[in-house]
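Morning F.,

Quick status update on the modeling queue. The single chain you submitted on Monday has been processed. Sequence for confirmation:
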Amino acid sequence: MPAALTIRTVNVAQAPQETGGPLNRLLRSAHAWQFVIFLGAAPSIFIAIAASTSADEKLPTARWVLNRYAEVSGERANLLKHKSVTIHGRYQVPADKLEAATVSYTKGGASVQTFQLADGRRGATGYDGHVGWEVGLSGKVTIHAGDEARTMARDADMYYHLHVMQYFKSLDVVGVQNFGGRPCYHLKGINNWDQPNEQFYDKENGLLLGYKFNTAWRGGNGAADAIFEDYKPFAGILFSTKQIGHDSNTMDVSFTDSVTWDDVPDSALQLPSAVKAKLAAESPK
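Structure tokens below.
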């Protein structure tokens, strides 16, 4: 595994168009330690063109491509040594002159991501092993159940890339396709909650370069994609440290600044009091 690796690609991704603007898109950006999952509709500045491939070239299986990523990223060799991860980063919307400091905690199938604006306002989102939740800048609490909660549970799985197939009903390599100017193995599948998903892994070095999916089912704009770039090592594991995206004419940028291991206290994952109150109010009497 290389000691350091930087990849630059043309970006076409972004967070979903949720109500409440870019901060709510940030709130839905769980699983930041691996990638920003909740990415939304993008007016595509990227055109996917099938790479020239000989007709008799044999494609690998999806499992082979996924296992290769787990190997080259260092996750296969190093991730199971750890029980939790803390990630500090930044989230920006340049057009709105908005910037937030972010902290993500993941442990035992639960996660919490917090953000703080320069003016001191705060918000958070998380999954506690049962329900997903958000607390917005105004203090408004939103509870997520059903397939949205299943999505957040996946995002709270810090070992996701070691068992991707567990989350899919089907996932196959359908060809070799240029993505961000790089020839990639193109995977297409249906996840366990019946949503389509496409994944793009660099044919040469095996790293994950992007996703395409649809956000309409959870209130997004529909067609969506994501690009991951600037891979750098943290304790032997490569992370995408920069995600750039577009949602309509809005560009969002997420950065990973530091990654530390096995330092998440249980208290960091506790439900906020406002979320507990909301759940109590909504529970059957």
